[in-house]
Amino acid sequence: MLRGQASGKVNVFLAAGAARADGFHELATIFQAVSLKERVDIETMPRYPVPRGHQLVRWLHVTGRDAERVPRDETNLAVRAVEAVAEAYYQRFPQLEYLPALHMYVHKGIPTAGGMAGGSADAAAALWLMDRLLGSFFGAGLGTAQLMRIAAQLGSDVPFVLRGGTALGTGRGERLERITAHGRFHWVFALAKKGLSTPAVFRELDRLRADAGSPRPAMDPGAVIHALSTGDPELLAPALHNDLEVAAFSLRPELADLKARASRLGALGAILCGSGPTMAFLCADELAAARVQEGLRGVAECAGVCAATAPAGGAELARGGLD
Ligand code: C5P
Q1: What is the tens place of the pLDDT at every residue in 154-192?
Q2: Which atom of ligand 1 is nearest to the CA of 27?
Q3: Which of 20, 24, 206 for mutating ligand 1's site (highest number of atoms within 8 Å of CB)?
Q4: How many angstroms separate the CA atoms of 279 and 262, rounded?
Q5: 243 is catalytic
Q6: At 50, is the secondary structure helix, strand, or coil?
Q7: What are 28-85's pLDDT values in tens digits?
Q8: Distance (Å, whole) CA 248 – CA 272
Q9: Cα dihedral 277, 290, 228, 37 sign
Q10: Where's the GHMP kinase N-terminal domain (predicted)?
């Protein structure tokens, strides 16, 4: 059994341009991985060979936070990640006819459909584990460049959660440049009762911008990049920016109330996580984070609260990685 893990993310800056011909929006975003993690384990069933073109993941077990909301079929992003890596090995070894069936276990620690890349982290961990598994069997892995290409095909956030750390993402968010970050930031996340679809939030942004008529000035990530390099949350808080926030607040007005409440509880800053609806609150230190977390508990708009630190790593072996 191979045991892996990957972290979720918060976007501390997100500027969205116009929709492109392929339907995606051009982004400039700064990701930071957070300490909430997904666990993914893969077990091979060598007595059950699966011919090329058939699904390798025969059993998918999902436990943990919001497990009931996760698809168990071939639409699951972690299943698609495994199949994509298998296909890359079939292309590399054209004579290969079978691979062993797999059991996959996913334990969720990141809120589902909240804008924190929980599904993308499952995919990144599965992709990375599968490459390790087949790479050790065939003598060499696919290599970073090919893994990143497969990750980008699976979703815009998958390349970042595969790598972790802190990075500037451009294109759909999949073209990454590492950013220097010091210190450890303390975050509290307020989870919403219902997920919010990413395409719906981007559509709402387009609608609001079309209604407003005049073009917006482009946002510059310079202040966020400087704040990250100092490790000072007092500098980062006022620089936090997410263009998608107005769209998510328009669809879910209660998120704006949550932002105001967290500021009264002493959070230094607040930002919508990716396309939401999770709200992220930046706190001065662990104690301040505990106070905000406590104050948000039981608030009607909020289905749950959790705390995490940033930055965190990318896809890697979990404790007891191999047995
Ligand atoms: O890449 P991902 O699967 O996360 O994207 C989901 C959807 O979110 C896309 O189909 C698109 O509608 C929207 N999206 C976008 N611009 C981006 C990323 C996502 O419009 N940069």
Answers
A1: 999 999 999 999 999 999 999 999 999 999 999 999 999
A2: 21
A3: 24
A4: 10
A5: no
A6: strand
A7: 999 999 999 999 999 999 999 999 999 999 999 999 988 998 999 999 999 999 999 9
A8: 8
A9: negative
A10: 76-165
The DSSP symbol for 24 reads P
- Measure the CA–CA gap between 76 and 255, rounded to whole angstroms: 28
Question: For the CA atoms of 238, 244, 245, 251, what is the dihedral angle to 10 degrees?
Answer: 180
Pocket test for ligand 1, best of 9, 11, 20, 25 (most atoms within 8 A of CB): 25
Ligand 1 atom closest to the Cα of residue 156 is: 1
Given a cut of 60, whether residue 252 has pLDDT beyond it is yes
Phi, psi of 314 (to 5 degrees): -100, -155
pLDDT mean over 300-316:
95
State residue 316's pLDDT score. Answer: 96
Region 85-108: mean pLDDT is 97
C-beta separation of 247 from 202 below 8 A:
yes
Q: Reply yes or no on whether 9 is catalytic.
A: yes
- Give all strands (DSSP E) within 148-202, no chain letters: 166-171, 175-178, 185-191
Give residues (CB < 6 A) around ligand 1.
23-25, 27, 155-157, 172-173, 198-199, 202
Question: Which member of 9, 37, 108, 259 is catalytic?
Answer: 9
Strands 98-108 and 57-64: parallel
Judge whether 36 and 9 are in contact, CB under 8 Å.
no
Tokens of 133: 């598994």
Please give the structure tokens belonging to residue 165. 């750390």
How many angstroms separate the CA atoms of 180 and 231, rounded? 10
Residue 52 phi/psi, 5-degree rounding, is -50, 140
Q: Contact, 128 vs 150, CB < 8 A?
A: no
192 annotated as ligand-binding: no
* Closest C-alpha to 57, from 2, 6, 101: 101
Phi and psi, residue 162, nearest 5°: -65, -40
Place of tokens 């996959």: 104
